[in-house]
Amino acid sequence: MTAWYALAAAALAAPAAAQAQGCGEAVEVCDRAVANGVALIGRNGAVPVVVDAAVDPAVRHAAAALAGDLAAVAGRPVRAPLAAPPASGEAVVVGELGRSVLLDGLVRSGKLSVAGLAGTWEGFRQAVVDRPFPGVTRALVIVGADRRGAAFGAYDLSERIGVSPWRWWADVPVARRGRLWVTPGVRADAPKVKYRGFFINDEDPAFGTWAKRRFGGVNAAAYTHVFDLLLRLRGNYLWPAMWGKAIADDDPKAQALADARGVVLGTSHHEPMTRAHVEWERYGRGGKWDYRTNAPVLRDFWAGGIRRMMGKPGGYESLVTVGMRGDGDEPMTEGTATDLLERIVADQRAIIARETGRPAADTPQMWALYKEVQDYYDKGMKVPDDVTLLFSDDNWGQIRRLPAGGALPRRGGYGVYYHFDYVGGPRNYKWLNTVQVEKTWQQMDLAWARGARTIWMVNVGDIKPVEYPLDFFMRMAWDPERMTPAALADDPRRWAAAAFGARDAAGIGALVSDYARLAARRKPELVDPDSFALGAVTATTLDGGAWGRAVAEWDALDARVARVKARVPAEARDAFFQLVEHPVVALGTLYRLHYAVAWNRRLAAAGDARADAFATRAEAAFARDRALAEQYHLVAGGKWDGMMLQTHIGYTGWQQPDRDVMPAVTRVGGKVPPVHFVAAPFAEAGMEAIRFTRAVAGKGLAWQAIPRLGHGAGALAALPQGRPSTAAADGVRVEYDLSLARAGEARVRLTMVPTIDTRAAGGVRIGVSVDDGPVRTLVMDLKPDAPDWTRAVTDNAAVVETRVGRLAAGRHTVKLWRIDDNAVVQRVALMGD
Questions:
Q1: Cβ contacts of residue 666 below 8 Å, gap of 6+?
Q2: What b-and-e string marks burial along 104-143, b requiring 16 or more CB atoms within 10 Å of the CB?
Q3: Degrees, nearest 5: CA angle 590-593-595
Q4: Is residue 145 located within the same domain as residue 51?
Q5: Is residue 133 part of a domain?
Q6: Partners of 322 in the β-ladder
Q7: Beta partners for 140?
Q8: Is residue 801 within 8 Å of 810, Cβ to Cβ?
Q9: 8 A C-beta contact, residue 825 and residue 780
Q10: Which residue intervals of 673-817 are DSSP H helices?
Q11: Measured between alpha carbons, how far is 712 from 336 in angstroms, rounded to an integer?
Q12: 25 C-beta neighbours (distance < 10 Å), count
């Protein structure tokens, strides 16, 4: 067994082994009777849920949701939560520590231990308690350290009994279970990242149109489902829809509802002081968004946002964005106006203190170091210690900056704003999911290791269709340390099992992973007839070249989807279409469209009548693309009408076209001869980096395979991340036995997963040597919007290479040496000139 395969196999085997243990864990949901456990579902249906009458509304709502979920699993009518324990039998009791008469009584009597729970941010404890109340033989008690802790404890149980967080948002069915128990014992959990959430951005025409058609607008009726998804994913922080929308101004009930559910509302990176962008147009009194010339008007405008936040005693729970960018998410000034920005924040904090009646530091605040604002930080901008600094990626999944090693602790801490969806260069990407969770893991694991632990926020566009990566991001945000490489390797199977059951989970998980790998190679908005090379043309045959090989991969994936779909139960077909089938078929159709156009143009230019056959194919693929969107809008009885309106064909620059545009094709005329394809052998230089021959650890570091990351079977990174730079003398290396066909001058070429130097130290470095030769340092220094960065994000790969001198023909040992973290290798090649 090769080293890379052993690592991947071990990663996959560990979770499976844990599952095989059965019902032996504390407070584990089990399909068979267990001694001293609680029957969640028995002969008489679901166990009653009990919650105090005077409980916080967030806890009451979560308890009611749990009661509904238990009823759905049992296949029985929903029973509302009880305000007092039942006279007999068993129960589930939900409450908040110190605010529940029932649970506080159990603590005083010694029946419930809550040692270590008080003061834990959003922590919860689930415990089976014998004879908790008169007549009640046993109860599962869910106690939260605060209101969201109690809610998360309830939602956690809902998910473990088989109710997916995606039940409403992706129509994932609930599997009926006639008997269900929970084992005795105590189980505790709490989040590691304080604020975890998502940003609904780029929401027209899809999210906005859908909300108007279904709910009459982006209003409280729509947001009730958004809040439910966020909380079921155990998130707590939302940046609401913004372009032309203002959650608190459009429907004041939505802001109150968010608070009642326990959702912390914020505003995006360029919407300070709880004010939505569109509100300046509505209430800015015609002035300019310029603090140098219009400060009094801006201060009054911002004060109105904070007054609204204080619209109930104590205020609505919020995380206030401070700072300022230009109007419309643009730079505020040319150059770096550090003094001006520091003055703006000082004035904003004075407003916060005045309007809340408390020191500004008592109100949670965030300052987003997005795009040019990061330059202010790099040049020494002074930030109040209680304000959370929110670093950002480059909008394409590469984090730009993280706290420096040895940085002093901050009261407000650090966070990361990440993107699954973006409007901007080199082109927008908004239509389909193009996220590899393995890349998300590598970047966010690095962020965690480097101390970005207060806020994790992800831009999800319209929420759909990035369901799986959002699920992954929120799960990892809850406990980054729990998302080990082994858990990462198993996560697609885990997610598929939760949505579609265990029988086909491995196959569906592989489909989801392989789709993401192919989609991430080049985002669909960047695919056009010139994206890949065609092969040779003869009078009788056509070689598809790289284009043909890309289409063949989509054809094979499409066939796998069809085989699995035949096994999916009828009740899960809508979910399967949304989560698995549609993205595969839709993106494969786009590839077939541009492939046909590429052949049409090549052949038409030569007067070859076979061009006409490809014109017909292209037109059919364009029609198929439109039909797939219409099919999506009809799924689940038309529930998602409007959600697939995002244009994606016909880009001429970075911004989307107003409508999908059929690419121009030419018909030559005459009799069309048959089209016969040949497949020329595909030979890519070198080998996949995870197929190394030997690995040598040192300094507590070792090169490890991350299966599926990048273009192929996986990529290689030195783990754990976040460690200081090392030197060749530290010996952390990986070796490859490679052959050189002919003697001569040679080069080593590395194909890297794109990453950015988060330390601002001049690039990400990796060492290369051959045999016993000297170690040469290669540097990948990608700077957003520069040509090499544009190529890297377009191709999802960056190439670095070095000459290694004259080598003899035959076998050589190529060694890669760990220098900096965040160096992730896809392929290694030894090449002659």
A1: 600, 601, 604, 611, 615
A2: bebbeeebbebeebeebebbbbbbbbeebbeebebbbbbb
A3: 110
A4: yes
A5: yes
A6: 367
A7: 92, 128
A8: no
A9: no
A10: 787-795
A11: 42
A12: 13
- Spatial distance between the Cα atoms of 400 and 525, rounded to a whole number of angstroms: 23
Blockwise average pLDDT, block size 10, the chain, 833 residues? 35 33 87 96 96 97 98 97 97 98 97 97 98 98 98 98 98 97 98 98 94 98 98 98 96 97 96 96 88 94 98 96 78 69 95 98 96 84 94 97 83 98 97 98 98 98 98 98 98 98 97 98 98 96 96 98 98 98 98 98 98 98 98 98 98 96 96 89 83 97 97 97 96 97 97 97 97 97 97 98 97 98 98 91
Are 511 and 424 contained in the same domain? no
- Answer whether residue 136 is part of any domain: yes
Residue 204 vs residues 138, 200, 230, 329, 350: alpha-carbon distances, Å = 51, 10, 21, 16, 36
Tell which phi-psi region holds residue 463, choosing left (phi > 0), alpha (psi between -120 and 50) or beta.
Answer: left
- The amino acid at residue 427 is R
What's the confidence (pLDDT) of residue 381? Answer: 87
Which domain covers residue 584, as residue numbers?
505-678
Rounded CA separation 233/305 (Å)? 28
Q: Are residues 374 and 357 in the same domain?
A: yes
**Total domains, the chain:** 4
């990608």: which residue's tokens? 782
Are 553 and 588 within 8 A, CB to CB? Answer: no
Q: Is 260 exposed, middle or buried (0-12, 13-18, 19+ CB in 10 A)?
A: middle
CATH number of residue 767's parent domain:
2.60.120.1620
Give the residue among 123, 217, 233, 121 at the shortest CA–CA distance from 168.
Answer: 233
Among 658, 678, 698, the domain-final residue is 678
CATH number at residue 107: 3.30.379.10
For 28, the token pair is 């584990």
Residues 129, 166, single domain; the answer is yes
Residue whose structure tokens are 């003398």: 729
Report whether 227 contacts 185 (CB < 8 A). no
Reported as half-sphere exposure (CB side, CA atoms, 13 A), residue 495 has a value of 31
Burial per residue of 488-500, b for 16 or more beta-carbon CB atoms within 10 angstroms, e otherwise: bbbbbbbbbbbbb
How many alpha carbons fall within 13 Å on the CB side of residue 678?
11
For the chain, the farthest-separated pair of C-alpha atoms sits apart, in whole angstroms, at 92
Amino acid at position 418, single letter: Y
In the prediction, which pLDDT does 334 show? 55
Please give the pLDDT value at position 1.
32
Query: What distance lies between CA 473 and its chain's CA centroid?
Result: 4
What confidence score (pLDDT) does residue 333 get?
58
Q: Which one of 189, 224, 250 terminates a domain?
A: 189
Provide the pairing of β-strand 798-807 with 744-752: antiparallel
- Could you tell me if residue 16 is inside a domain? no
CATH, residue 581: 1.20.58.2150
Residues 272 and 359 in one domain: yes
**Dihedral-angle region of residue 387 (phi above 0 means left; psi in -120 to 50 means alpha; beta otherwise):** beta
pLDDT at 215: 98
Q: What is the pLDDT of residue 106?
A: 98
Amino acid identity of residue 113, one-letter, is S
Query: What pTM was computed for the model?
Result: 0.96
Separation CA 295–CA 139 (nearest Å): 59
| Cβ neighbours of 396 (radius 10 Å) | 23
Residue 751: what pLDDT? Answer: 98
Residues 336, 230 share a domain: yes
Q: For 453-486, b where at least 16 C-beta lie within 10 A, e where not — what string?
A: bbbbbbbbbbbbbbbbbbbbbbbbbbbbeebbbb
CATH of residue 353's domain is 3.20.20.520
Q: How many residues does the chain have?
A: 833
Answer yes or no: do 146 and 238 share one domain.
no
Domain annotation covers residue 785: yes
